[in-house]
Amino acid sequence: MTERLPLMAGNWKMNLNHLEAIQHTQKLAFALADKDYEAVEVAVMVPFTDLRSVQTLVDGDKLKIKYGSQDVSQHDSGAYTGEISGPMLSKLKCAYAVIGHSERRQYHGENEEIVNAKVKAAYRNGITPILCIGEPLEIRKAGTHVAYTLAQLDGALADVPASDAESIVVAYEPVWAIGTGEVATPEDAQEVCGAIRGRLAELYDAELAEKVRVLYGGSVKSSSAAGLMAKPDVDGALIGGASLDADEFVKIVRYREQAVG
Ligand SMILES: O=C(CO)COP(=O)(O)O
Fold first, then answer.
1. Considering the entire predicted model, what is its pTM?
2. Where is the active site (predicted)?
3. Residue 176 is labelled as binding a ligand
């Protein structure tokens, strides 16, 4: 079995201006030691206006923290007022772009076609997508959450070749768990993360599926991280609210030191 380096990615959402971003990144850099980065990959997904500041810090101080954006345009250039392109993000050395977050699907009308085009735009520009999928509450209640989430995966990966897909990060983020304080149980997370890996094996092959990191996101805190990470198909977390608190985020990065609960 391939060893997958866990990924702990903070999604700051629409929080922290560029001055606050500098302060927050410096706090993380100060708190995290080399040995933390050996055990876990650490990333922050920041507002567009923070990227240049974060890049300058990371480059200047040779920080091991990775960074990325929370979205990317499906187009590479042109008359798309307000959009930010893949070439702009790769020029800022973004490692990752969050794509298809439920808040973008909900508030910005992103459908499967757009998400698929954005995944391709990221790859075209050397950026690794962190693809977000997951069901709303009514689907969970109806018991069709696995099929619903896998259909989102199929749509996002349509016509994406294995040579690209092998590096994708998939984040299972059930909408009912996002920002609600209601974290999925480790068993719930494993059920869907395992199904995602199974579908990747069907869409591509087992070797690719073993390589891909599948994260869980939704109200992750230091008190829940170790339990989630104990599951075989959960390879990290996408962390919203708790990533805005540097001490709490560092505790999540060090989940191995926390009790499984
Ligand atoms: O949406 C999320 C990460 O992308 C999860 O947000 P919370 O951790 O605030 O629930």
1. 0.97
2. 101, 173
3. no
Provide the 3-class DSSP secondary structure of residue 124: helix
Residue 12 known to bind ligand = yes
| Alpha carbon 80 to its chain's center | 25
In a domain, 155, yes or no: yes
The tens digit of pLDDT for each residue in 56-80 reads 999 999 999 999 999 999 999 999 9
**CATH code of residue 66:** 3.20.20.70
Domain assignment of residue 21, given as a range = 7-238
Global ipTM = 0.99
**Cβ-proximal residues to 209 (8 Å cutoff; 6+ apart), any chain:** 197, 198, 200, 201
For the annotated catalytic residues, the residue numbers are 101, 173
Around ligand 1, the residues with Cβ closer than 6 Å are 11, 101, 173, 178-179, 217-220, 238-242
Q: Whose CA is nearest to atom 6 of ligand 1?
A: 240
Rounded distance between C-alpha atoms, residue 61 and residue 57, angstroms: 6
Q: Is residue 247 part of a domain?
A: no
